[in-house]
Amino acid sequence: FLEFHSSLSMRLLLLLVALAATALAAEDFYCGSRTCYQVMGLERTASAGEVRKAYRTLSLQLHPDKNEAEDAAQQFQLLVTAYELLKDEESRANYDHMLDHPEQYYRNYYNYMRYRSPRIPLTPILVVMVTIISALQYAHAWSTHRNTIERATMTPHYRQLATRQAEESGLFKKKLSKTEKDDIIRSIVRRNLDLKGDLGPADWRKVLWVRILLLPYTLSAHVGWWVYWIYRIDMCHQQYTHDDLVYLICCRLRCSREKFEHFDDETKEELFDYAVWDPANFKEYVADKREEQMQKLRDSGWYKQAKRQQKRGGPSSFNYND
After folding, report:
1. By the 8 A CB rule, do 77 and 63 touch?
2. What is the mean pLDDT of the chain?
3. What string of DSSP letters covers 159-192?
4. How many C-beta atoms lie closer than 10 Å to residue 264's C-beta?
5. Residues 149, 200: contact at Cβ < 8 Å?
6. How far apart are CA 211 and CA 215, in angstroms?
7. CB–CB of 62/76 below 8 Å?
8. Is the per-residue pLDDT at 130 higher than 90?
9. Can you state the angle between helices 105-116 and 2-22, rounded to 10 degrees?
10. CA dist., res. 297 & res. 319, Å (int)
């Protein structure tokens, strides 16, 4: 998907360049119908020193204060354009390429737009981009948490449970408006759900700006933790602590510590009972969970109905044991 998106973006960019280029004739590039070398009275082999010398000489002649021609300002501006182009090695090389290969119209147009566009330093661009990304991250986290709470509030099960808790706590004793009751129910639902991880409340510490600023500390803490782990476990052969086992379980499940903490107590106890930090035990745990899911499927009414249809020669021909 990313490759397709990148390819599509590049094609759209090339199309926009092509459409813009059609509005600009070749003689409109740089110095118009004349070459910039002709404007300055130079050969293409002229050195950088000769370019500067020609500019100083012609600028005295063509300056509007000394040139009485009606188009004196245009002549002087054309001279400045030619000098700014030829004094820079990169822009001069692109210009010479255009003179040698006029048939490469769109490439020449691209180089011309690069030359005409202001050269903005990279640092402000990165700062703006990181700031925008950080703001979008926080807004997305806030919106996701809020929408999850709203959906749960509208669910009959959570709403009835929250209403019952509010009545038992005496929060509905005094006369309240519907909006005030909804706010109370929403706060109770939020407390009952106790959302964490991706669905949890927006946390400014997780945005890109903060992650970048804390990167040196994060890296040093990570390296220090690994050094301490090697010293305790590999060198001193100490027993695993509870936190160590949680870390190993998270590695086996490929989940974060925050996501693990969101597991229910029964799931956590089952993971510790299986000792899934051991590779052999983890394989056994995965096999047992798969068999448990298959058994639930076999006991389901949908499965039994599909099997009956299969025996009658219906379209269902799946092998549910695979």
Report:
1. no
2. 82
3. HHHHHHHHHHTTTTSS---HHHHHHHHHHHHHHH
4. 8
5. no
6. 6
7. yes
8. yes
9. 90
10. 12
